[in-house]
């Protein structure tokens, strides 16, 4: 039913665009779409308004990524997403952890205390 309703909305918007009138139907569809989209958590390289990044530089050695996640868990910080920037064969890479804004400083401090180079991403 939701897909059929969306299809009907799109057909009405197409008719609205064909008529080239005041485009009220199209504007309403876009407004509702943006409202719905704002309710979906953002990931895939974008930060939701409630998520912030903590960046960690890591040597390319076994167990380092796990160590970062264990520090986060030990600090009581939930990691919402992980982004890894690493070129195979290079001696180090960067891990970006997306966390709730209120947890950013706590995680960065816990990482530094564990001897890891953790800092809020800019």
Question: How would you characterize the overall build of this protein?
Answer:
- It contains 4 helices and 4 strands.
- It is α+β, with helices and mostly antiparallel strands and 122 residues long.
- Strand 2 (81-85) and strand 3 (92-100) form a beta hairpin.
- The mean pLDDT is 85.
What is this structure's SSE topology?
Layout: H1 2-19, H2 24-38, E1 51-59, H3 64-74, E2 81-85, E3 92-100, H4 104-113, E4 117-120
Antiparallel strand pairs: 1-3, 1-4, 2-3
Overall 3D geometry?
elongated
Average pLDDT works out at 85
Q: Treating each run of at least 4 consecutive H or I residues as one helix, how many helices?
A: 4
Calculate the terminal CA-CA distance, rounded to whole Å.
Answer: 43 Å
Order of helices and strands: HHEHEEHE
Strand arrangement, largest sheet?
2-3-1-4
Compute the CA-based radius of gyration. 22 Å
What share of residues are in beta strands? 15-25%
Poorly predicted parts: none
Largest sheet: 4 strands, antiparallel
In total, how many beta strands? 4
Helix proportion range: 40-55%
Structural class: alpha+beta
Brief account:
The chain has 122 residues and is an alpha+beta fold. 44% of the residues lie in helices and 22% in strands. It contains four helices and four strands; from the N terminus they run H-H-E-H-E-E-H-E.
């Amino acid at each position: 039913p939701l897909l059929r309703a969306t299809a009907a909305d799109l057909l009405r918007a197409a008719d609205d665009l064909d008529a080239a009138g005041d485009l009220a139907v199209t504007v309403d569809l876009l407004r509702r779409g943006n409202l719905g989209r704002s309710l979906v958590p953002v990931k895939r390289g974008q930060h939701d308004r409630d998520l912030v990044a903590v960046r960690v530089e890591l040597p390319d050695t076994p167990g380092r990524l796990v160590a970062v996640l264990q520090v986060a868990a030990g600090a009581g910080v939930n990691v919402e997403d992980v982004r890894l920037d690493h070129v195979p064969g290079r001696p180090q890479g960067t891990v970006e952890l997306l966390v709730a804004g209120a947890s950013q400083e706590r995680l960065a401090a816990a990482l530094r205390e564990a001897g890891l180079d953790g800092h809020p991403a800019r």
